[in-house]
Amino acid sequence: MKDRVMFRLPSCVVALSVAVGGCASVDQKTQSAGVGAAVGCATGAVLAKLTKNDAKTACLAGAVVGGLIGYQRARSSEIDDAKAAVDDVVKVSGAKAAPVRTDTVTVTDKQTGKTEAVRAFKSVSVDIPLSQLDTNDGKEAMRKLNAYARKVARERGEAVQMTIATAPSTGTKATPVGNMQVSEKVGDGVVNRLIVTDSRIPVNVQRVSIEASNPTRVSV
Questions:
Q1: What angle do CA 57, 59, 62 make, to 5 degrees?
Q2: What is the pLDDT of residues 26-73, one digit of tens each?
Q3: Closest CA to 133 of 95, 189, 96
Q4: Cβ neighbours around 86 below 10 Å, total
Q5: Helix (H) or strand (E) holding 184
């Protein structure tokens, strides 16, 4: 009996890994949940071994929990990374940042119908003095903000909006004016960078905002 349990454990994990990695049409959010499912499967099977219960049943039960955990961990990681990026930006002399904003997503398990409320990254906005943009700290801050935008777009497989705004020069229009938009393909996602002038931006400051879209509900 012990030999059979040991054999079923890797089979369960491999089956879930193939299901996640072998479907090109599955978006990154679902894949993240699938990784959690594989972890849940392994955990369930180990528990089965320790408690002498059926490994297959325990694997499936663990996968249900793991799927939700995978989605939650992916979103939690995005929030933590956004806060880390903000912490680096405010090290720039004179830089300021607004609190990281989040949305609440209702995550439903397809098999059980169980739902959980998960916090997901929504947006972050920072102000960097124009005088600091060419300094080492200013360049590093922009590099990390760009890296964060790419990471979210890549892992979600979705479009992420990155807006770089400055105050208009004297005599120009006092409303936001799109000067240039550049789209960067990142995996299955894309970062849309929009450079604008905006009368709401303080003079001598560059405001960088990164925003993602979240569904109100999602199934994993």
A1: 110
A2: 445 545 555 554 544 444 444 444 444 444 444 444 444 456 888 999
A3: 95
A4: 22
A5: strand 177-186
